[in-house]
Write a structure and sequence with these properties.
16 helices; single chain; 63% helix; mainly alpha; 3 domains
Length: 345
């Protein structure tokens, strides 16, 4: 009977720790962020609205500080943050209103081919259609700070609306407004049109990119090579980034990590949110929004799991076996104890 009481006490304390203390500690170490949302318009406007509310709260707090020089500094800083948040909200709202107009149009792939061949190929390659990149990786790294991507698979792996937003306003689509501005311009310029209806021309380019993209399943490895390999290594699969390191450090402000073990260091759930919108997890990070569609992102994460945590299923199965083993062992130990000590009770 004593052993049963001890077991009950142990279960109660384990329950309190697991369902009370551990969740609280987790929320402190990993604050909640909204899950990945592939409706990027809704995601951007909601996040921008949250930033406005946070800035308004900070401004209210600053107003309560005792009237000193420090208060004025706090007020100025809070007001500046609020102005920036409101400007960001207005910019994102305007960007996605334009994308809505583009989405309502029917793109013409043939016209998109003509526009692409007279504008985009000055920087981008499209090898599958015979458009070789204007620079090799070394020259591209030197000129732009990062290798300019080939767009052969862009129409298949990136979200259609993201592509339209990226063409219209690259900085806002990638969520890098905190890093690039008039003094520090982003390497990719906005698309100002080719003389006709700007929205229709963007719709045509997107339609062209979708038409030339492979219609077969794009594997997780192919997604990684297309979307991530310009900046990140994956040494566990012998993949090394294409951008020269010094140029990349200057462009990003730091050296992007090897992603071989990222799936185990951060978890698949974290990566789903982070890839979808890095600013949620690390506000102010230099990593751009990747812009993958949901299917491509899932394939990418599965590939990272395969490379960095190939033993996950085996480890999970072994865990069940171990739990079963300890249950059986506990029962046998209890029966053995009763058999040995029954004459003393």
């Amino acid at each position: 009977m004593k052993e049963l009481k001890i077991l009950v006490v142990l279960i109660i304390f384990t329950f309190i720790t697991y369902y009370g203390i551990e969740p609280f500690a987790h929320t402190q170490m990993n604050p909640y962020v909204a899950p990945a949302n592939f409706d990027m318009e809704q995601e951007d406007i909601e996040l921008a609205d949250v930033k406005i509310k946070e800035a308004q709260k900070a401004l209210t707090s600053a107003e309560k500080i005792e009237a000193t020089q420090e208060q004025q500094k706090a007020l100025d800083a809070a007001q500046k943050d609020l102005d920036a948040a409101e400007e960001s909200f207005a910019s994102y709202k305007g960007l996605w209103e334009s994308v809505k107009e583009i989405k309502a149009l029917e793109g013409n792939a043939t016209m998109g081919n003509e526009i692409f061949s007279m504008t985009c190929i000055s920087c981008h390659g499209l090898k599958s259609q015979g458009f070789e990149p204007p620079f090799d990786d070394a020259l591209s790294s030197e000129a732009y700070g990062v290798v300019v991507p080939d767009l052969g698979k862009a129409g298949a792996i990136y979200d259609k609306n993201f592509l339209a937003a990226l063409i219209i306003n690259p900085v806002h689509a990638l969520k890098l407004g905190h890093k690039f501005n008039d003094e520090e311009p982003f390497p990719m310029t906005e698309f100002f049109g080719f003389g006709g209806d700007l929205n229709q021309e963007v719709a045509d380019i997107v339609a062209y990119l979708q038409s030339v993209a492979t219609q077969e399943e794009v594997s997780g490895k192919e997604v990684f090579e297309d979307a991530c390999l310009r900046c990140h290594d994956l040494k566990y699969d012998n993949l090394l980034r294409s951008t020269e390191q010094t140029a990349l450090e200057g462009y990003m402000g730091s050296n992007p990590p090897d992603l071989s073990m990222m799936i185990r260091a951060r978890s698949a759930e974290y990566l789903k949110t982070f890839i979808n919108d890095p600013q949620k997890n690390i506000p102010g990070t230099s990593m751009p929004r990747v812009g993958l569609n949901e299917k491509s992102q899932n394939n990418l994460i599965s590939y990272l799991e395969q490379v960095g945590d190939s033993k996950k299923s085996e480890r999970t199965t072994l865990g069940y076996y171990l739990i079963g083993f300890f249950i059986i062992l506990s029962v046998l130990a209890y029966l053995w104890k009763n058999a040995v000590w029954k004459e003393l009770h």
